[in-house]
UniProtKB/TrEMBL annotation:
<dbReference type="GO" id="GO:0016887">
    <property type="term" value="F:ATP hydrolysis activity"/>
</dbReference>
<dbReference type="InterPro" id="IPR003439">
    <property type="entry name" value="ABC_transporter-like_ATP-bd"/>
</dbReference>
<keyword id="KW-0813">Transport</keyword>
<dbReference type="InterPro" id="IPR003593">
    <property type="entry name" value="AAA+_ATPase"/>
</dbReference>
<dbReference type="GO" id="GO:0005524">
    <property type="term" value="F:ATP binding"/>
</dbReference>
<dbReference type="InterPro" id="IPR027417">
    <property type="entry name" value="P-loop_NTPase"/>
</dbReference>
<dbReference type="InterPro" id="IPR050763">
    <property type="entry name" value="ABC_transporter_ATP-binding"/>
</dbReference>
<protein>
    <submittedName>
        <fullName>ABC transporter ATP-binding protein</fullName>
    </submittedName>
</protein>
<keyword id="KW-0547">Nucleotide-binding</keyword>
<dbReference type="InterPro" id="IPR017871">
    <property type="entry name" value="ABC_transporter-like_CS"/>
</dbReference>
<feature type="domain" description="ABC transporter">
    <location>
        <begin position="5"/>
        <end position="234"/>
    </location>
</feature>
<dbReference type="Pfam" id="PF00005">
    <property type="entry name" value="ABC_tran"/>
</dbReference>
<keyword id="KW-0067">ATP-binding</keyword>
Amino acid sequence: MSNAISLKGLAKTYGNGKVALHGIDLDVPRGSLFGLLGPNGAGKSTLINILAGMVNKSAGQATVWGFDIDAHPRNAKASIGIVPQEILFDAFFTPFETLELQAGLFGVPRAKRRTMELLRAVRLDDKAHVYSRTLSGGMKRRLMVAKAMVHNPPVLILDEPTAGVDIELRQQLWAYVKTLHADGVTVILTTHYLEEAEALCDRIAIVDQGRIVANEATPVLLARAQEKVIRVTLDRPVGSPPLVQGTRRGEVEAATPNIVTYGFDKRETNAGAVLAALVADGHGIVDVTTKEADLEDVFLALTARHGVAQDGVAG
Ligand SMILES: Nc1ncnc2c1ncn2[C@@H]1O[C@H](COP(=O)(O)OP(=O)(O)OP(=O)(O)O)[C@@H](O)[C@H]1O
């Protein structure tokens, strides 16, 4: 019961024979801010749509907040709020009416509705009574989040919430999501923006071709990226990179032949040893920078397919 979402052998084959999910197992712990990453077509929307009751699974089990989606569909649905990719609401309703209508659909009694509180939370209280069609894109997006929260679900799923949203609005949206999370809401977000998942999520699962290829606490996932890059400015140009044991991919920069870069595995050597080797070889060090591998490197390594170009990575 400690999981917000639990999937066992969840599979989906569409009518046209396309297998979108190959029997996946996935647990999302309660209280987490969970990232679901994957290239286009990986199966993220299929997974979310099954939880939302919009797509029928072909096999397996799914529970939301302990409620099996087959045995207790109403409770499962009531436990989840979903912000879909597309903006969906009637442009001729005001934000206030939109939320009231949604609360009605979820059977929230009038006395328990939090319409103005939600509008304040997404900073749309001053727009409560204007037509929704006059809202900016970012405001509409925030209204979608408020709409997903009318029935106060313990789990909020955001499907690609920041695609096409500018940086300032993105930050406002994340500020609100963090507030919800701090208040105890379990948040699951799908995103192509790896930096976003890295910065926000405490746990990340990577989906690729209908399979979970990683599911780990963010620092553990990042630690999988053992490659580090060191860029050294030498005191004079070199024709080829001096040999340094324990490194690979030594390169001299074409335009500035006194700058050399090396890749190395953190488990095998370190920046100090690289510099010491260069000095021992008679080179003077003028400057040095290093770069850690990031989530993008891990992501690419895990979803690398022979001869197939990746799409949809990093937005
Ligand atoms: N209704 C459908 N009928 C047939 N195939 C579908 C249907 N919906 C999705 N698919 C296919 O299932 C696979 C998974 O799609 P899905 O939309 O779940 O991926 P996704 O990870 O959400 O991708 P994106 O990030 O682009 O939304 C894709 O190959 C897609 O073409």
